[in-house]
């Protein structure tokens, strides 16, 4: 009897320990969010700036002291972040999608054995290395090719980010494409489609939610990247006018100013507000991934792509119908 | 006829396009890696490998490994336990759902935000000062979701029979987990841990304001409280990735930064390839069992 009792005591002990660890993750996330909100809201409550000023003004001159009195327009950084990430996506998505199609539809054996592991391994390369190579190779190259005074530019940041997020988008969309059921492909081939017709009329529409998830994951990575961008973007506080202008992003401004800002001062608080904005953006990205991956909200992100959900099958069927009609 | 010919032509053309894209990016990635590694190692002199205060990478390499090790000491137990909770004990409900959302949020947090949080908690509130432990804890936060999800997936991926058989023999749930399920999952969890370590090596933004940039180590000093003792976790510690960043801001010694990029890249590649090989062996083995 005694051993049974001990057994159960142990069971309850370990079970509560596991639960505590599970709950710890919740507490950690909430406390990160809470601290960000607490610190970041100071811009609006303590220093009395309006949200419109923070989001819509380019006047960035916060006082480095607790008295305030500066201006906190972060529009430059927001525009900088959005334009670098947009540029990166613009460059990266077509190539990533092409590679994903290559490794699933065109050369599946080579893709599975060789291409895919290499792409996955590259997803783990540290961003400082990308930044450093960008700084030493890409920046001088841009300077020489476009005949500029300095090569630091939005374009350089966009290219560095594009190479950085390429593996992410490729492997997630390849998973999505692979999970499209074989029947759909076979049916399309049976109707006489060529491989390209099957790919873009059937497979791509069916895998679309997963592909979008991949793109958003890539976007999230690009948005949060700080140091690689900081190395090549030129760190100038001005709105970008072309892809050759130097500017700053939310993350690079935090990275460069945080060290010399006074604790509790207006500058530091404004930086916290920018971090809060980044946090909200990453929540938005998660929401979007859930939204696009449809009915299986618990397993969003990389995993949803692996599973052919019923929604995907349905859209595959719809894609097939379109293809048949288009063929007439 | 014309239409069919056109379709076939387009098909061939697009196949060519995809080949071109794939080959281009493949070459780009391989070229990138070999440029960094070969360029870095070729431009290095022998004194750069020394464990000196400046002008070498030895201390930074040690700091990197040590920092990742310390961070794993924190994140493995919590992550594995969290994963076990999710796989075995959690009931379907709002709390579990929320926990999953939390894990996702953590895994998509920009590392600079985690760095800020760590700065506030460990430096301003706990008063650690810029130290290895503060940076290691930040890296723990970043790697925690990865370890949790791998553990959960590993346990859920085991055949149902493992748990059923163990419960049928009269074991409690915990006994089944500890003596049956966990041992079967160890390789898979290891894969996750290796990937987490690989991410930790390259982390820089989260460490920028938490670990500082100390590289002054005395290798004969084993007094754990002294700031120059290599094993003291409360000393500032510059990692390889921070060294690259610092060299970039100071703008000197390109060859040194090239070398530390090369070493960092090698470190990450070795770990990622290791994780890859391990997971391949697991899937081969489980395929063999099924047959």
Which features characterize this protein?
heterodimer; A: 328 residues; mainly alpha; MetI-like fold; two-stranded antiparallel ribbon; 14 helices; disordered C terminus; B: 291 residues
Strand order of the largest sheet of chain A: 1-2
Full CATH superfamily name of chain A? MetI-like
- What is the helix fraction of residues of chain A, given as a range? over 70%
Total domain count of chain B: 1
Low-pLDDT residue spans of chain A: 295-328
CATH homologous superfamily heading of chain B: MetI-like
The coarse silhouette of chain B is: globular
Give the domain tally of chain A.
Answer: 1
CATH topology of chain B: MetI-like fold
| SS strand fraction of chain A | under 5%
* Percent of residues in beta strands of chain B: under 5%
Structural class of chain A: mainly alpha
Query: Architecture of chain A, CATH level 2?
Result: Orthogonal Bundle
Oligomer: heterodimer
Number of strands of chain A: 2
Could you tell me which chain pair has the largest interface and how many residues each side has?
Answer: A-B, 87 and 91 residues
Uncertain spans of chain B: none
Indicate the CATH topology of chain A.
MetI-like fold
* Rg over C-alpha atoms of chain A, rounded to the nearest angstrom: 24 Å
Count helical runs of chain A: 14
What's this entry about, in short?
The complex is a heterodimer of chains A (328) and B (291). Chain A has 328 residues and is mostly helical.
Structure characterization notes:
The complex is a heterodimer of chains A (328) and B (291). Helices cover 74% and strands 1% of the residues of chain A. Chain A has 328 residues and is mainly α. Chain A has a two-stranded antiparallel sheet. The radius of gyration of chain A is 24 Å and the shape is globular. Chain B has a single domain, classed as MetI-like (MetI-like fold). Chain B contains 9 helices and no strands. Chain B has helices at residues 2-42, 58-89, 94-108, 111-125, 132-157, 160-168, 173-202, 240-250, 254-290. At the A-B interface, helix 1, helix 4, helix 5, helix 6 and helix 7 of A face helix 1, helix 2, helix 3, helix 4 and helix 5 of B.
């Amino acid at each position: 009897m005694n051993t049974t009792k001990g057994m159960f005591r142990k069971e309850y002990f370990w079970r509560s320990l596991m639960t505590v660890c599970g709950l710890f993750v919740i507490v950690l996330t909430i406390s990160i969010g809470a601290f960000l909100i607490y610190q970041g809201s100071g811009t609006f409550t303590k220093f009395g700036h309006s949200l419109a000023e923070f989001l819509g003004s380019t006047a960035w001159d916060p006082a480095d002291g607790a008295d305030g009195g500066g201006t906190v327009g972060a529009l430059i950084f927001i525009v900088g972040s959005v334009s670098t990430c947009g540029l990166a996506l613009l460059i990266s998505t077509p190539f990533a999608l092409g590679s994903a199609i290559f490794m699933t539809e065109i050369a599946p054996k080579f893709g599975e054995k060789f291409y895919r592991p290499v792409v996955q391994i590259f997803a783990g390369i540290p961003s400082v290395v990308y930044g450093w190579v960008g700084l030493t190779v890409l920046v001088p190259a841009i300077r020489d090719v476009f005949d500029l005074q300095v090569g630091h530019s939005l374009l350089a940041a966009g290219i560095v980010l594009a190479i950085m997020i390429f593996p992410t988008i490729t492997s997630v969309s390849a998973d999505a494409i692979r999970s499209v059921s074989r029947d759909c492909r076979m049916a399309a081939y049976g109707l006489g489609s060529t491989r390209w017709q099957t790919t873009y009329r059937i497979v791509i529409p069916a895998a679309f939610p997963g592909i979008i998830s991949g793109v958003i994951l890539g976007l999230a990575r690009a948005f949060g990247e700080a140091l690689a961008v900081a190395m090549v973007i030129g760190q100038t506080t001005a709105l970008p006018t072309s892809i050759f202008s130097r500017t700053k992003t939310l993350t690079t401004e935090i990275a460069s100013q945080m060290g010399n800002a006074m604790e509790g001062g207006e500058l530091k608080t404004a930086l916290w507000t920018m971090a809060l904005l980044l946090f909200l953006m990453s929540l938005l990205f998660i929401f979007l991934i859930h939204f696009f991956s449809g009915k299986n909200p618990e397993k969003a992100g990389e995993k949803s792509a692996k599973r052919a959900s019923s929604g995907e099958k349905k859209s595959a069927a719809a894609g097939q119908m379109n293809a048949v009609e288009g063929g007439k | 006829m014309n239409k069919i010919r056109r379709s076939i032509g387009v098909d061939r053309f697009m196949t060519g396009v995809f080949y071109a894209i794939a080959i281009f990016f493949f070459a780009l990635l391989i070229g990138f890696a070999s440029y960094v590694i070969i360029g870095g190692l070729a431009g290095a002199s022998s004194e750069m490998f020394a464990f000196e205060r400046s002008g070498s990478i030895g201390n930074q390499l040690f700091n990197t490994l040590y920092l990742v090790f310390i961070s794993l000491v924190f994140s493995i137990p919590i992550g594995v336990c969290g994963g076990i909770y999710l796989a075995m004990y959690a009931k379907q409900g709002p709390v579990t759902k929320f926990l999953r959302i939390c894990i996702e949020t953590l895994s998509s947090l920009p590392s600079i935000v985690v760095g800020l949080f760590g700065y506030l908690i460990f430096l301003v509130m706990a008063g650690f000062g810029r130290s290895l432990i503060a940076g290691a804890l930040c890296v723990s936060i970043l790697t925690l979701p990865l370890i949790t999800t791998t553990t959960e997936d590993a346990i859920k991926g085991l055949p149902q029979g493992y748990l059923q058989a163990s419960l049928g023999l009269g074991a409690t749930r915990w006994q089944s987990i500890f003596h049956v399920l966990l041992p079967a999952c160890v390789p898979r969890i290891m894969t996750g841990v290796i990937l987490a370590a690989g991410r930790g090596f390259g982390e820089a933004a989260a460490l920028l304001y938490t670990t500082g940039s100390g590289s002054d180590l005395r290798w004969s000093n084993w007094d754990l409280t002294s700031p120059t003792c290599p094993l003291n976790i409360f000393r500032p510690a510059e990692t390889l990735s921070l060294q690259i960043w610092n060299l970039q801001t100071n703008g000197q010694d390109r060859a040194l930064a090239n070398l530390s990029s090369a070493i960092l890249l090698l470190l990450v590649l070795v770990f990622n390839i290791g994780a890859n090989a391990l997971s391949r062996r697991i899937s081969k083995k489980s395929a063999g069992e099924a047959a």
